Amino acid sequence: MHPALYDNSLTFVAVVLVSVLALIIAGLASHWIQKAFDASLTASTMKSLPISAINPIETVRYHLSPVLLMSFFSWFWGNVDWFYRVTQPYAGMYHAAPAPSNLMLDYPSCPAVLITIKALKNHHWRVALFSAISLLSVIPPVVANGVFNDVPTSTGFSYNIQRLNFWVCFVALIIYLVALVVARPTPAYRLPRAVQTFSDVLSYCYASHIHENRPDRKSTFSIQEVGQTKRDLESQVYLAKSQYEFGFYRGIDGCDHLGFDYANRVDAKGRQIKITKYDPGWGFRCAGSTAWFKDPQEILGEGERSV
Q1: What is the model's pLDDT at position 17?
Q2: Mean pLDDT for back-to-back runs of 10 residues, the chain (307 residues)
Q3: What is residue 132's three-state secondary structure?
C-alpha cells in the first residue's frame, strides 16, 4: 500500500484531526472563539510600533500555523487520491471482470477535474470521492491564512478571528474526519506491493498469459500489424471481451505467481484453469512491515513455487 494509507499513518492523521477539532469545539463551548470574532483575541501589543513590526512569534502562531496544518491535510488527501487512482484497476480484478473495468482505466494520467466525472460514470465511488476531496483541499490552506486578522490599535496591534474563514476551515476539518473513516482500503485495494512505477506494474504480470505469443495467435496486447495505433490496440482489447482477475495464477513459465491473468483459461488438454483468489483480509498493517492480524502465509500462500 501507499505509505499514507498504512494503518499507523491513518491513525496519526486521525489523532491530529480529532485533537484540532476538540480544541475548536472547546473554544466554541466556552464562547472564547465567539468573543474573538469581533473583539481582540490577545491583549499583547507592541507600543508605538507600526503593524509591519509584528512579533515574528505571533505571526507564526496566528498565520503560519493554520496554513501549515491545512497544507498537511491537503498533502495527505493528494496521496490518498493517488493511491486509489493507481489501485482501482487491481480492485477491479478482485473478481473476474472485463478490461474496461480494470486494465483500460486511465485514472493516473487523467486530468484532476475529469477523474471525478469518469469515476462517477464507472461507479468507482472511492476514486470519485477522494479525487474531489483532493481537488478541493487546496482551498482551505489559502483560507487558513486569513483565519486570524491583524487589527491595528492605538498601541500597536492585536488579532481577531474572521468568521467566514474560520467556518470554512472548521467544516473542512469535519469533512476530513468523516472521509478518513472511508479512506482505509478495503481488501480489494490492499495489494502486497505498492504500485508506484512501471516496473511495479510489470511485477504483477511479467509471467502472465496476456503476453503469450504463439505461432497460431498473437497476444491481444501485441501489435498485430505494422502501423497500428494506440486506438487500434485499445479496440483489440475491447473486442476480445476477455475477463481478468488478480490472484495466484499459473504463469507461462510453469510456476505460480501473484498478479493478474485471464480469469479463465483452458490448458492443452482442455482443462479449465482458474486463478486462486487473493484475499488479504482486514488485518492491521504498519509502514515498513507486513504486520497483519491474519497469518501472512495464509494470505500469500507459498508465493512463487515451481510445479
Answers
A1: 96
A2: 81 95 93 75 46 59 87 95 94 92 91 91 95 95 88 67 92 96 93 87 89 67 71 80 91 89 77 84 72 46 40
A3: helix
- In this structure, the strands spanning 256-262 and 148-153 are unpaired
**Distance, CA of 207 to CA of 210 (rounded, Å):** 8
Grid coordinates of 164? 467566514
* Residues listed for the chain: 307
Cα–Cα dist 280/273, whole Å: 22
Closest CA to 119 of 141, 135, 95: 135
- For the chain, state the CA radius of gyration: 26
Nearest to 33 by CA among 152, 157, 159: 159
Q: Which residue has the cell 472563539?
A: 33
> Distance between CA 120 and CA 132 in Å, rounded?
11
Q: Nearest Cα to 6, choosing from 193, 197, 184?
A: 184
Spatial contact of 155 and 48, defined as CB atoms under 8 Å apart: yes
Residue with cell 509584528: 54
Taking the whole predicted model, whether its pTM rises above 0.85 is answered as no
